[in-house]
Amino acid sequence: MTNLKIGIDIGSTTVKVVVLDGDGTLLFRSYERHFSKVREKTCEILRGIQEMLSGRQVRMLITGSAGLGVAKASSLPFVQEVYATAAAVREYIPDTDAVIELGGEDAKIIFFKGSLEERMNGSCAGGTGAFIDQMATLMNISVEELDALSLKHEKIYPIASRCGVFAKSDIQPILNQGGRKEDVAASIFQAVVDQTISGLTQGRELSGKVVFLGGPLHFLKGLRERFTETLHLDEEHAIFPENGDCFAAIGAALCAADYEPMPFETMFRKLEEAVDSTSMADTLPPLFKDRAEYDAFLKRHNANAPGMIDPDTYEGDAYLGIDAGSTTTKLTLITPEGGILYTYYSSNAGNPVSVVKGQLEKIHELCGDRIHIRGSAVTGYGEDLIKSAFRVDAGLVETIAHYRAARHFNPDVDFIIDIGGQDMKCFKIRNGAVDSIMLNEACSSGCGSFIETFARALGYSIADFAKLGLFAEHPVNLGSRCTVFMNSSVKQAQKEGASVEAISAGLSISIVKNAVYKVIRAASADDLGKHIVVQGGTFLNDAVLRSFEVELERNVTRPVIAGIMGAYGAALYAKDLGLTQTSLLTAEELKGFTHTAKPATCGLCTNHCSLTVNQFDNGRRFISGNRCQRPLGKAASTMPNLLRYKYEKLRSLTGIPGPRGKIGIPFGLNMYENLPFWHALFTKLGFEVVLSPESSRKLYIKGQHTIPSDTVCYPAKLMHGHVEALLDMGADTIFYPCMSYNFDEKSGDNNYNCPVVAYYPELIGANIPRLKQIRYLNPYFGLHRPRDFKLRAEKYFLREFQIPKGETRAAVDAAYEAYAAYKEDIRLEGEKIIRFARENGKRILVLAGRPYHIDPEINHGIDELITSFDLALISEDALSHLVSKESRKVLNQWTYQARMYSAARYVCTQPDMHLVQLVSFGCGIDAITGDEMRDILERCGKLYTQLKIDDINNLGAVRIRIRSLLAAIDAREKAATKPKEAANG
Amino acid sequence: MAKLVYDETGRLLFTKEMKQEYTLLMPQMLPVHFSMMQRCMQLAGYKVDMLTTHHRGIVDEGLKYVHNDTCYPALLVIGQLIDAVKHGGYDMHKVGLLITQTGGGCRASNYIHLLRKALKKAGMDYIPVVSVNLSGLEKNPGFSLTLTLIRQMIFSMMYGDIIVQVANQCRPYEKEPGATDAMIERCMARLIDGFKEGKGLNYPGMVKNCDKIVRDFASIPLEGPSKPRVGIVGEIYIKFAPLGNNNLEDFLRSEGAEPVVPGLTDFIIFKIDNRDVDIDLYGGSFLKKIVVRIFKRYVEKCQRAMISSIRNNSSFRAPVPFSHLKELIHGYLGEGNKMGEGWLLTAEMLELIESGTGNIVCTQPFGCLPNHVVGKGMIRRLKDDFPHSNIVAIDYDPGATKINQENRIKLMLANARRSTAAEGPSAGKPGPDTGKPASAEA
């Protein structure tokens, strides 16, 4: 009798067990979820097949990310899972060119053609099987339903492919604005595909025969479809093998051949007796010492409750507030005194319109003839949609709604923090007005709903789950980076044997740390204020509230209705409107209510925004997804926009056919500023300058397979698309110089470029294979020393193009002149805009960023959004020359950044100017500039707003920030003119 | 008690009084090198403690006081210093912090500023921060880098390098566990004793010391077949500091591999060379160029002495001279690529591959800007040109789990073992118990 071979693959979510006989025939296979009980589950499966195995000699091998710990603890042999998978593929599908395997938390690619290469996703790409689970939960459907829906899609929305958190912040607004679930489902799968391709291929072509493995690809047809379509694979080249969900286990079994056999009983005993030796070292102090401490805590917080009025007996006026949040919908009906008649809080289940409709019906019924709704207001992500759908009287930005409510409970409130399902919002209150606003950026979003999703996955209600954490003796430290990382920390903690109690408490603490250190950036309670009000559904969780108090070492106010403060504030706002009759749909009108949502693509300009057209009964319509006013039938804003001006000016620099042929220039990164220089130089030398086309998502996709580092900023990633596009256009020479130094504008300690801008030309050269077939020129040049540059340029162009030195000299002079003229023109245009604004009494907004932030694909139309708020828009380089050098508390050594500091200092001196900083995700340098910019502005009493942008187009969040900023400016100006009145009301 | 004195820009100074009363805390980057530096400063009369703490609280303090998007080394270094001040049992009013300051286009040159910001935030801005630099930045009355101290520290770096180079080749094979570390301690003590008498601080003295060091290590009894070698390159702090890379060298050894860590001397020459290259590329003073060249030649000469010492006195593998690294990089990156580790990082990978260590862990803090280009950005080219190279890029940050990192390193190791097995014994060095179970021994 030959020896049996057993392969056990223990992944992050499932256990796969495979038994092969001596000649490789599959005797047994199983694929089961382990719910973090990894060793127990494995034993259980083995026990089930004891009959087949007992008394036999077996060779066995463990693999998988969670298998490592099990193997260690039981001293059984282990093999890395990608290695095992490769072995199985070589055995069964030997002519494979590449393998894509998606697991619960890992994504892997193996290339066989040419040299063997295996890759796993980096740390920041948690979105795979677990990501799909999370998305399904978000949409309130099962994964199977998600799959079925995706097959009926009509369009694909662009969804962030960087990670689960980002994707979630993309999907939420689409759902809230009425996007079809079918389309969203397919878009989710497409995001997984894009993530896999951009994150893992890194310059290697995915072609030939591709084998797809792993649970998600085995079970989800929609995902398969997205992959084969995106990779242009036909049936012969896209292989979905039988047992594709167990390949790593099969590989482990095959590899087991090299190991010594042992009696099954011995092996099984080892596994059963393995007690995980690793202990939980990383723990935190408990939240409550004892029950008494908890009771005192509860008593203190329960005191902050508004009166509850019985709606069945009440007669009189009422006001309705709706908070259509990103994951939940909240409603309140209040009396003029603020007493609560009715509240509602629930997940919006991916369709806020139908939730609100049901609630309105209920409220109308409740009101009967006794209660008269005088006014209504709506806030939150879904504000515009709900307002159009139900003819709500007014809409208001969330920050204002929250402040209105908080003030009701604590008139002295000076700091509000709201943690909802998706977002965290913090704002300071000064002189009765919302002052500085801090909102989380994409990376730390989704914390609130994460706890909920997690609780549900473990089979608890959120309330029960939260209670478990209160008395945990050793809460685990789960870090505070983002929910994806928390998720893997939780997994690790579970493997190490952490209890549900410890995890529950640990999660609460993580969320709070995220809020305190990432969003608020505070080191102590004194940075916040004396009267802190906390709200948002997440704070209803006592463990979160306690963690917050512990972290700040200060007691705070949590109103009992913390979860519905937005709606409550909206209701109070509705009351403040002083209306006599609401325009809200009547009970009668509600009966005839209809709603359809259709996807559409706007064709009014080159942005081609993905629109969702919501059509209601009686011709009410709501369009979302737009960046500007045009699709709404309104004219584009006529407010001046320096970003647009610069962009058009640069794009108009077209080539003039010349005797020396063509030279391709990729239009991105520092070319956004240096183009006038190089354009003049090459034109003068007799080259026809050919620019790469305008940036677009399509252009990005074109180049994404050659991006080696998925954490680099989006502007850099776009360069790959620009170079590929130039190659497609037939460019035979491309010029893209390396530049450690930037122009020296004498306003900083040095004049560097950032490392990415400086050396990206070399990365492009090493990672785009097609460049080998053409002439790619990426010399080192420094333009900051004109005389030295001239000498080096003479030599360079003589060597490369045999151009006489005299010609180069003249061209260099022309280039410097052109650059100076461009800069001068920007400054003059800036002055013109400022003059215009002042003559017309408009506010001026300075969008401070990098030159390449004027690219509409990079800024996603934020410039147009800003001008649509009736603001005149200029950029930092229109102001930076207006102040003299001043030393900073940080090293001020980058030219572009120095401009931002200067511009901020100038803004400080101008009452009608406000500054918003634009930051690209992944820009390490802006981690430094952000704090410094805030310092500069806040020290002179200005508001600081930062907008972080990536490849995603989530203007909803940007809109909230801009509106909050404007509301805060308004309130401040009002307070400045009528201080007393504002403080009271 | 020492008075707090500020300079005209408002910077808190480290005064002469403080030199008497205060303990200076310094972070550890390279265990051996920095330990030597610490002793040099003690010789000069400073009370200096090098921090070797390694626990989660460090990261937590870092997260609390440093912008969370700042690079991980800054977060660790600052977190470690603040953690020590708070919980290290020091009198908070009698400590100062030592931090090195470099220039360059990388955001890492901001550490000292971020540290001051953090101290302010923590309400501890009464703690003086002392900059250690060779550019004459930020002078302090109570702390001066005298010529003697500078010489001692520079030689410490080079002695540290030769010790680490040979020690790394002993540790995985030592017959008696701990013998290598004991030898390191003996060598360091002997060198410092020499420093006290002014010995070992010039070229002939160094040659003598190097010979002795190499012979000492060569005398350590070793055993066992040779193990697969794994190179470690990367961002300088993460590459060297055990706190930064989760004890990567220990992990590799526990997996049955021999870590190969290119030394610090190349980095020092690299930074000097940058100034030379800058003048070529962008122009500048001819005189400066000459001074820079003289300095560079001197350090290069010392490096060559180290190399000959190893070659002449042992069968240890010797590093290659800097000039060879600079040759290797041609065709890959320009010499002007100087921010962070710049072209040197890629050159080190090329050298490792060339010398038969194709298995490489390329370490970097999450989102490290220069490494997008010189680390991750070059792996594709290296794989194309050297199909047998086996490079894994690992990101380090406060949220990355160890298990995730180790799993990826294990994949690289599995491939390393497979290729060693494929080459077979005829390929020269015997493989690491190739036929047998590979990774269960941990």
Describe this structure in words.
The complex is a heterodimer of chains A (about 1000) and B (about 450). Chain A is built from 36 helices and 30 strands. Chain A is an alpha/beta fold and about 1000 residues long. Chain A has five domains: about 5-95 and about 250-275, ATPase, nucleotide binding domain (Nucleotidyltransferase, domain 5, 2-Layer Sandwich); about 100-240, Nucleotidyltransferase, domain 5 (2-Layer Sandwich); about 310-410 and about 570-595, 2-Layer Sandwich (Nucleotidyltransferase, domain 5), CATH 3.30.420.40; about 645-820, no CATH class; about 825-985, Rossmann fold. Chain A is globular, with a radius of gyration of 31 Å. By secondary structure, chain B is an alpha/beta fold. Among the domains of chain B are: about 15-20 and about 55-145, no CATH class; about 230-265 and about 320-440, Rossmann fold (3-Layer(aba) Sandwich). In chain B, the strands form two sheets. Chain B has a four-stranded parallel β-sheet. In chain B, strand 3 (about 95-100), helix 5 (about 110-120) and strand 4 form a beta-alpha-beta unit. Classes of the chains: A alpha/beta (about 1000), B alpha/beta (about 450). The interface between A and B is large, with 93 and 83 residues.
